Amino acid sequence: MKEVPEEIKHWNWGAFSFNMFWGIGNKSYLPLLMLIPLFNLVWVFICGAKGNEWAWQNGDYQDVETFNAVQATWNRAGFVAFLIYIISFAVVFIFYGMIIAALIGGSSYDY
After folding, report:
1. Which of 41, 56, 78, 95 could be stapled to 14 by a disulfide with Cβ–Cβ 3.0 to 4.6 Å?
2. Domain-embedded: residue 92
3. How much is the CA Rg of the chain, to the nearest whole Å?
4. Structural domains counted in the chain
5. DSSP labels, 39-104
6. Is the pLDDT of residue 80 over 60?
7. What is the pTM (predicted TM-score) of this model?
8. Above pLDDT 70, what percent of the chain?
9. 41 domain residue, yes or no
């Protein structure tokens, strides 16, 4: 097993957001455990935390700079996807809240 440099031991948004696709693309197949229901609720965070280490150990990287350049693309895409997930969840939550408020009786004004 290859020694993992300290410079790459940090959060990987690509592994967090695109876990299974990221794993296949980086020859790291542990993210496929995301297919296990309920276990995946915890495993997604483990993928984000350990993703760089797995990619380094399974990849053919010559130096840390090359590795960081490859993972930077995954990180940007993963972070944008995470933001889109959060915004989408908020919009849906607000939308359903408005529907529920309208069904319960949104106008309770006495004239």
Report:
1. 78
2. yes
3. 20
4. 1
5. THHHHHHHHHHHHHHHHHHHS--SSHHHHHHHHHHHHHHHHHHHHHHHHHHHHHHHHHHHHHHHHH
6. yes
7. 0.82
8. 95
9. yes
**Position 60 in a domain:** yes
Judge whether 38 and 82 are in contact, CB under 8 Å: no
Amino acid at 103: L
| Residues 20, 24, 27: CA angle, nearest 5 degrees | 130
> Would you give the distance in Å from CA 106 to the centre of its chain?
37
Q: Which domain holds residue 56?
A: 6-105
Residue 18 parent element (H or E): none
Q: What is the pLDDT of residue 82?
A: 97
Q: Which residue is it, tokens 């972070």?
A: 79
Measured from the Cβ of residue 54, the count of other Cβ atoms closer than 10 Å reads 21
Q: Over the stretch 39-78, which tens digit does the pLDDT of each residue have?
A: 999 999 999 999 999 999 999 898 999 999 999 999 999 9
In a domain, 110, yes or no: no
